[in-house]
């Protein structure tokens, strides 16, 4: 792919994208846990996803256990299929490296988590009676995409951005059609909007 208009971390000599790398490690580790729990026992995997995936109806149930309120966070690290994980991981890397380079690791972590939590809230509001667990980092990654879009705009809309964005969208749809559990499209919209709104507030002032 041709270089983006905005300067890349690789070209600017900045430190490695540690936050992106840690998030990728956590995503892969969580999926490895799913495979381990589900080896030869689909019921055990289903129980894991039901407990730690985001189930809107459970959040509204009187007397729900305290652990339910952790699921907007824990669901961000679980995935319904290898394709779902791979698409999120690839684009977290592609978009995240650029965004982390511009706002720093801690701010990037905040943007990522905030986007994921807002995405979860959007899913709960749009499907309050849903009982299938919503899984995946797509909402958080969408927030990273939103932040990247603003950086790309500031760089003059050059490079291969449209092709990369189109590929991201196609893979999200494919993940929904071929195996991802509880795909929540409004969550993606909420995550994208969060990234667009937060990036101007997180980006350091130019010196």
Give an overview in words.
By secondary structure, the chain is mainly α. The protein has one domain (17-202): Rhomboid-like fold, CATH 1.20.1540. It is built from 10 helices and no strands. Residues 1-12 have low confidence and may be disordered.
Using the alpha-carbon principal axes, give the shape: globular
Q: What CATH architecture label applies?
A: Up-down Bundle
What composes the largest sheet? none
In percent, how helical is the residue content? 55-70%
CATH topology: Rhomboid-like fold
Number of domains: 1
Please state roughly what percent of the residues sit in beta strands, choosing from under 5%, 5-15%, 15-25%, 25-35%, 35-45% or over 45%: under 5%
CATH C-level category: Mainly Alpha
Q: How many alpha or pi helices?
A: 10
Number of DSSP-assigned strands: 0
Write down the oligomeric state: single chain
N-to-C span:
31 Å
Radius of gyration from the CA trace?
Answer: 17 Å
pLDDT averaged over residues = 84
Spans where pLDDT lies below 50 across 5 or more residues: 1-12
Structural class: mainly alpha
SSE map:
Layout: H1 9-12, H2 18-37, H3 42-52, H4 56-59, H5 71-74, H6 82-103, H7 105-126, H8 138-154, H9 161-177, H10 185-202
List keywords for this structure.
Rhomboid-like fold, disordered N terminus, mainly alpha, globular, 207 residues
Compact description:
With 207 residues, the chain is mainly α. The protein has helices at 9-12, 18-37, 42-52, 56-59, 71-74, 82-103, 105-126, 138-154, 161-177, 185-202.
């Amino acid at each position: 792919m041709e270089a983006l208009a905005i300067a890349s971390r690789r070209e600017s000599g900045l430190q490695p994208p540690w936050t992106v790398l840690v998030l990728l490690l956590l995503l892969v580790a969580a999926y490895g846990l799913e495979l381990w729990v589900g080896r030869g026992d689909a019921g055990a995997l289903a129980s894991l996803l039901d407990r730690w995936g985001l189930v809107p109806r459970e959040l509204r149930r009187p007397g729900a256990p305290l652990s339910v309120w952790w699921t907007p966070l824990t669901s961000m690290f679980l995935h319904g299929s290898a394709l779902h994980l791979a698409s999120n991981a690839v684009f977290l890397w592609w978009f995240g490296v650029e965004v982390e380079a511009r706002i720093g690791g801690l701010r990037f972590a905040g943007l990522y988590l905030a986007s994921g939590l807002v995405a979860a809230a959007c899913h709960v509001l749009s499907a309050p009676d849903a009982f299938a667990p919503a899984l995946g980092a797509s909402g958080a990654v969408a927030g990273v995409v939103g932040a990247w879009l603003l950086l790309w705009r500031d760089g003059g809309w050059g490079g291969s951005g449209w092709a990369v964005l189109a590929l991201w969208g196609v893979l999200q749809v494919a993940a929904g059609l071929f195996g991802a559990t509880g795909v929540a499209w409004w969550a993606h919209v909420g995550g994208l909007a969060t990234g667009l709104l937060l990036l101007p507030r997180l980006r350091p002032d130019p010196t």
